[in-house]
Amino acid sequence: MNLKHITVGASSLPAVILLHGFLGSGADWMAIAARLSDHFFCVMPDLPGHGRSMSPDAEQYTFESTARSIVAVADMQGLQKPALLGYSMGGRIALYTALQNPGLFSGLILESSSPGLKSDEERQQRIKEDDKRALRLKEIGVAAFVEEWYRMPLFDRMRKNDKQYSKFMARRQQLDTDGIALSLRGAGTGTQVPLWSRLRELSIPVLLVVGAEDSKFRDINREMTVSLRNCRLEEVPNAGHNVHFERQVLFGDLIREFIAKSVSVPRR
Question: Which residues contact 215 (CB under 8 A, 6 or more apart)?
């Protein structure tokens, strides 16, 4: 799939590719890109089924196809060893993409993400849940589905920022129902092959970012540090699942510092 994408910053600068989460788009990163663009060329794709990246072909929504599409964006932009950043679903895709393309990326940043579910039983249960969600989406429409999704406890802290949350939700009201359903079935946690056993393959620097109040993903990320060879974990205080939304300034500072100090990123 040809992933539509936004760029911010001078193309001569070191590059970072930013992957959004489920129900998002590349535009979700604009506030962060504004904080990074003095030093980095930010490339923000719309992942399959989101924003302007659409296809009726279910095969375009798999992890394998999405990873190839991300590499194609890097090639199209002429990026040399970009850093790769992903949030939640985008983090799972980023981890898979980095593992499938050793040597392509200079560093990896995973925000509130995981290497997947460990057991077959957990994965099968999640596939059933996501199938039900896809049917629910078709039944009630995308606007109502988005409202239901963000009422989950995972996003409690986000909803406290009324002004920014309203803008955040407005961007999601025009999502494509078919695209989101295909994403749920193609890139859901249940369909993902678990990557826990492959974490040791990563030799590039890895930054894990998680909200200190997001206990589920905090525990997952702490466990990930055991297997990652070159890893730093940042547990951000006063933040839940979406750290880049809830703590924009701090998140931007963490990313800029990590790439500048820990990653050798060539200029083009």
Answer: none
Question: Within a domain: residue 207?
Answer: yes
Residues 81 and 108 sit within 8 Å (Cβ to Cβ): no
> What Å distances lie between residue 56 and 38, 180, 237, CA to CA?
38, 11, 41
Sheet holding 231-236, edge to edge: 5-8, 41-45, 15-19, 83-87, 107-111, 206-211, 231-236
Q: What is the CATH number of the domain that holds 224?
A: 3.40.50.1820
Task: Summarize pLDDT for 25-83 with one digit per residue, the tens.
Answer: 999 999 999 999 999 999 999 999 999 999 999 999 999 999 999 999 999 999 999 99
Say how many domains are in the chain.
1
Establish if 203 belongs to a structural domain: yes
Is 163 inside any structural domain? Answer: no
Q: What is the pTM of this model?
A: 0.95
* Phi, psi angle pair for 263, to nearest 5°: -120, 130
pLDDT mean across residues, the chain: 94
**Among the listed residues 51, 43, 129, the one whose alpha carbon sits nearest the alpha carbon of residue 80:** 43
Please report, as a single letter, which amino acid is at residue 57.
D
CB atoms within 10 A of CB 133: 18
| Domain interval for residue 32 | 5-118+193-262
Virtual torsion, Cα 197, 203, 207, 210, nearest 10 deg = 0
Nearest to 227 by CA among 198, 263, 262: 198
CB hemisphere CA count around 22 (13 angstroms): 27
In a domain, 148, yes or no: no
